[in-house]
Design a protein that fits this description.
There is one protein chain. With about 240 residues, the chain is an alpha/beta fold. About 45% of the residues lie in helices and about 15% in strands. α4 links the parallel β3 and β4. α1 packs antiparallel against α2, α1 packs across α4 and α2 crosses α4. The two termini are about 25 Å apart. Belongs to the 1-acyl-sn-glycerol-3-phosphate acyltransferase family.
Length: about 240
């Protein structure tokens, strides 16, 4: 019974906070034209969802981030809750490269666009490439970007193969990649499920990986370096080394 009560509370808070903070963010964005203030609304939104779900977060390595410079953040993707965790706990300003469907949600979608988050249409290669080029320009201008290298949520919590687009984005921008391991979010809300299970999510921020020495010819080597870093912060089950108990 407790899990159903927690789930009801979470979705109620999600809807109300999305409307309230989304409208507030749009007002601020239209009146001040300050996208950074809009992102702070998103950070508060993420923090509220974690509290409503009863999720405790442990963050390691936050000191490795220099908020005065841009990065390409690359976290693994186990659950919706990865978004809330990253918003609440990654310091400084950043922008999302997120699937286009999210931008069609009333209030949330327009707020995301005004903040400067970048939609990517995974079903249209040409549009996806343009989105990556736009993201690279933002990074060159000094804005950090978050992209999930797996491209989608893992169906079982195990790290999926990486897509190449995010790595070409990083190489094109010339800025470092910061690998991020998110462990435990799959158990809070697995892909395809709707019941919320409170728990602890551990976030490990790894050392930035420089991209200057990489290009298309040795891109796979960069992908492997990022993959090893992310795997090092996951449990054996999440690495696919053994079955969950």
């Amino acid at each position: 019974m407790k899990i159903y009560i927690r789930t009801a509370i979470f979705y109620f808070v999600l809807v109300v906070s999305t409307i309230v903070l989304g409208v507030s963010a749009l007002i601020v964005l239209f009146t001040t034209k300050n996208a950074n203030l809009g992102h702070w609304h998103a950070r508060l939104w993420g923090f509220i969802q974690l509290k409503a779900a009863g999720v405790r977060t442990i963050v390691r390595g936050r000191e490795k981030i220099d908020t005065s410079r841009p990065y390409v953040y690359m976290p693994n993707h186990q659950s919706w809750f990865d978004i809330f965790v990253l918003l609440a706990h990654i310091p400084g300003q950043f922008r999302w490269l997120a699937k286009e469907e999210l931008y069609r949600i009333p209030i949330l979608g327009p707020a995301m666009r005004r903040i400067g988050y970048i939609p990517i249409d995974r079903s249209n290669r040409a549009k996806a490439i343009r989105s990556l080029e736009k993201a690279a320009e933002k990074i060159k201008e000094g804005t950090s970007v978050v992209i999930f290298p797996e491209g989608t949520r893992s169906p079982n919590g195990i790290l999926l193969p990486f897509k190449k687009g995010g790595f070409m984005l990083a190489i094109q921008s010339g800025q470092p990649i910061v690998p991020i391991s998110i462990s435990g979010s799959y158990h809070v809300l697995p892909k395809g499920k709707w019941l919320i299970r409170p728990g602890t999510v551990t976030v490990t921020i790894h050392d930035p990986i420089a991209t200057e020495e990489f290009d298309k010819s040795n891109r796979d080597s960069l992908m492997e370096k990022v993959r090893k870093a992310i795997l090092s912060g996951l449990t054996p089950e999440e690495q696919g080394l053994k079955k969950a108990a």
